[in-house]
Specification:
Chains A, B: This is Acetyl-CoA acetyltransferase. Chains A, B: Residues 4-224 form the Thiolase N-terminal domain. Chains A, B: Residues 242-385 form the Thiolase C-terminal domain. Two copies of one chain form a homodimer. Chain A is an alpha/beta fold. The first copy, chain A, folds into two domains: 4-121 and 214-236, Peroxisomal Thiolase, Chain A, domain 1, CATH 3.40.47.10; 129-211 and 238-334 and 354-385, Thiolase/Chalcone synthase (Peroxisomal Thiolase, Chain A, domain 1, 3-Layer(aba) Sandwich). The first copy, chain A, has 13 helices and eleven strands. Chain A starts with a strand and ends with a strand. Strand 3 (80-84) of chain A pairs antiparallel with strand 3 (80-84) of chain B, so a sheet runs across the interface.
Chain lengths: 386, 386
C-alpha cells in the first residue's frame, strides 16, 4: 500500500443557502479544493462523494455522476462514486479516496461531501434524518435523533458525574470557536445561560445542545505521498484511516453511553499510525449533540469514562487547552450538512496543520477526525500529520 | 496492487417478495455467499453494499451499518460501506470491494447489492427511479426512464437499420434464458408477437421491452488471489475493473444512441486485462430496456454500430451463439432489483465459469459484466476469468 497525502482543501460557507442549489454547492467546494491544490480538472483520476440523503432532500440519487457532470469531469468520463453512511458519509468518502490512492489504482482523487437540507421543512428534515437510525424499530416508534441522543444523555448523567452546566459548556466552547471561523453557520458567542434558557427539545437536551440543519459542501484532493511535492510545499499525510460498525438500533447496544464503534475505530487508528494519545494535538469530533462530544472524547480514550464533562469545564478542550476539540466550531456552531461534515473535519485539520486557521489557529502537527453515522452505527476515524 | 479472486456467490430469487423485508433479503443472499465460500462471518474484514434508493423505497438510509448489523457483523465492528450509483450501485460495490482487497487494506470482503422495490406502488417506483436521471432538467419536465430510453430507441432506429422485430428478439432471447434460470423473476418463454402485442409504454417501447420492478439481493466474497485456494478449488479471477461517468442528462450527450461511458469503461477494461473481444466467452449487459442491450453490445465493441439488431436476430447472442449475452435472462427476464443487479451479473458469470449454470450453461472461461446507472451516466465493466 502507498502512503497518501492531502494536497488541497476547499469548503463553502455553511448555512442556509436558499439561493444555491445542491449541485452548485458542490461545484463551489470542488473548485476551491482544486485551486488550493493547483490541480486542473483534467488531471483528476476519480471522485468520491459523501452524501446522506439527496434522494429524499432534493429527490435526486445518482449523485456521483451528477457531480462529475457539473464539475466538468464527464468529458473525460472520470469515475465518480457516491458513498453513504448517514452523517458519516463524508468521512467514508475520504476513506474510499484514500484506499483508491493507497491501492495504486488511482493517483489524483477528489473526496467531497455535500448536503442541501433546507429545500424541505424542518419537520421533514427531522424525519429524513431519522432514516439514519433503525426505521422499523426506532423511527416507526417515533424516535427522532434528538430523542435518541436524549436517551444517551439521560443514561450517561444517571451513571456518571456530568452536570447540566458542564454539558452546556460544550456548546459554549464550540460557539467560541465558531465565532473565529469565517465558514461557520453560527459565529455568535453564547454563555451557559444561553443554553440553559433555550427551549427544551428532548429532555435534557435543549436547542443549543443540538447541531443545526445546514446546507454546505467540502472537498479535498488526495495523491500518493511521493507525488505530493509536485503540487504543494505543505502536504498533509494520512497516518491512519479506520472504520467500524455497530448495531443500527440504540437498544441493541451493550452500553448506550459508550459508542463501541468509536472505541474500535479509535483503537484501529492508533494501531495503524503507531501513535499514542499524547501525540494528537487537536481533534475534530462528531458533536451532533453536546452529549455526543462528551462521549466521543472518552470513547476515543482522551480521558476516562465520566471525566469529559469536568475536562470541558476546566478548559482542557478549548482552543488554548491541552487538547483542543472542535476548533472549527464543530457540528454545533460550524453547522452540520450531514454528508459534508466528515470532509469539513479534514478541511479543518489540514487548515490547522498548515497554520492557515486564522483566529482559531492552534499549535498542531497531528490531528484526528472522528465522524459518526446515526447514534454510532458507523464511525470513521482519521489521523493526519503535517 | 494485489490480484483479486471471487471465492463465493449467493443470490435470492428475484421477484415480488411481499413477505420478505429489505434486511431479510440481504441476509439471505449474504448467507448463501458465505456458505458457498466456506467462510464464517467472523472472518469478514469489510462489507460493501450497493443500493440505489432504500431512503425512498423503504425510508431507510445508513444501509451499510444496517446490513452489517443484521448480518451479525456488528459484534466485530466490521466496516460496512454503502455505495450508490443508481442502477449501477451493485457493480460499483463490487468494484470498491475489489479495490479494498487489491490495496492490501482488507483480505476477506463481501460485496452485496439489495433493493426492495415493491413496498411502494408502481407509479411511485417510476418516480423514484427517475431520481437516477437529472431531476431538475429531466424529471421535473416529466421524463421517466421508459421515456428516456424511448428517445434513445427512436434516435437509434432513425439512424441505424434496426427493425421492431429485431428489438423484440432481445426480449425473446432473454426470456428463453430466464426460463432456464431458477432465480429469474420471469421463467416464461415469449415470442416476438408477445412483445409486439404488449401494451405501449413509451413509443416504440412496449411492456415486454422493459425490465420489471423487482425485489432481490445478491452477494459475493472476494479475497486476494494468493489466498483463494484456502477456500475453494475454483476461484474466479478479477481480470479488470473499470468505471466511467458521463453527463447525467441525456440531452447533454454527444450522441444519445451511443453510451460514451460504456465505450470508455469497456476500453479501460480491455486495456487492464490485456484481452481482446475474441477472448470473451459471455457477457452480462445492462438491458433495462431492449434498446439498451442493442447499444451495449455495440458500445462494448462486440460488433459495429448498427449491427446488433441483426446479430441478435441471427442468434449470435443466444445461449448457443458465438457470444452469449445475458445468459441469466438479463434485467428483462431475471428481474432488476436496481441495487442488486450489478452483483447478480457477477453471480451469473461466476456460476457459468464454474460450470454450475445448469440448463443455461455455456462454454465459458472468461466473462464480462456491464452495469449501467441512469441512461449511461455511470458505467462499470468487469472481466472475470476462471
Amino acid at each position: 500500500m502507498r502512503d497518501v497525502a492531502v494536497i488541497g482543501v476547499g469548503c463553502t460557507e455553511f448555512g442556509e443557502h436558499w439561493g444555491t442549489s445542491f449541485r452548485d454547492l458542490f461545484v463551489k467546494a470542488g473548485a476551491l479544493a482544486l485551486e488550493d491544490a493547483g490541480v486542473t480538472g483534467e488531471k483528476i483520476d476519480a471522485l468520491y462523494v459523501g452524501n446522506m440523503s439527496a434522494g429524499r432532500f432534493v429527490e435526486q440519487e445518482h449523485i456521483g455522476a451528477l457531480i462529475a457532470d457539473y464539475a466538468g469531469l464527464a468529458t473525460n468520463h472520470v469515475p465518480s462514486t457516491r458513498v453513504e453512511a448517514a452523517c458519516a458519509s463524508g468521512g467514508l468518502a475520504f476513506r474510499q479516496a484514500v484506499i483508491a490512492v493507497a491501492s495504486g489504482m488511482e493517483d489524483i482523487v477528489v473526496a467531497a461531501g455535500v448536503e442541501k437540507m433546507t429545500d424541505v421543512g424542518t419537520g421533514a428534515s427531522v424525519d429524513m434524518l431519522a432514516s439514519a437510525a433503525d426505521r422499523e424499530w426506532e423511527g416507526f416508534a417515533g424516535a427522532t435523533f434528538p430523542g435518541l441522543y436524549a436517551m444517551i444523555a439521560n443514561d450517561y448523567m444517571h451513571r456518571y458525574p456530568l452536570t447540566r452546566e458542564q454539558l452546556a459548556q460544550v456548546a459554549v466552547k464550540n460557539h467560541e470557536n465558531g465565532a473565529r471561523n469565517p465558514i461557520a453557520q453560527f459565529q455568535n458567542r453564547i454563555t451557559v445561560d444561553t443554553v440553559l434558557n433555550s427551549s427544551l427539545v428532548a429532555d435534557p437536551l435543549r436547542l443549543f445542545d443540538c447541531s443545526p440543519i445546514t446546507d454546505g459542501a467540502a472537498a479535498v484532493v488526495v495523491v500518493p505521498l511521493d507525488r505530493a511535492r509536485e503540487f504543494t510545499d505543505s502536504p498533509v499525510r494520512v497516518l491512519a484511516s479506520a472504520q467500524a460498525s455497530d448495531t443500527i438500533a440504540l437498544h441493541d447496544r451493550r452500553d448506550i453511553s459508550t459508542m463501541d464503534a468509536t472505541v474500535a475505530a479509535g483503537k484501529r487508528a492508533f494501531a495503524q499510525s503507531g501513535l499514542a494519545h499524547k501525540d494528537i494535538d487537536m481533534v475534530e469530533v462528531h458533536d451532533c449533540f453536546t452529549i455526543a462530544e462528551i462521549c466521543a472524547i472518552e470513547d476515543l480514550g482522551f480521558c476516562k469514562k465520566g471525566e469529559a464533562g469536568k475536562l470541558t469545564a476546566d478548559g482542557v478542550t478549548a482552543l488554548n487547552g491541552d487538547i483542543p476539540v472542535n476548533t472549527s466550531g464543530g457540528l454545533k456552531a460550524c453547522g452540520h450538512p450531514v454528508g459534508a461534515t466528515g470532509i469539513k473535519q479534514i478541511y479543518e485539520i489540514v487548515s490547522q496543520l498548515r497554520g492557515e486557521a486564522g483566529a482559531r489557529q492552534v499549535d498542531a502537527e497531528i490531528g484526528m477526525a472522528h465522524n459518526v453515522g446515526g447514534t454510532g452505527a458507523t464511525v470513521v476515524v482519521h489521523i493526519l500529520g503535517a
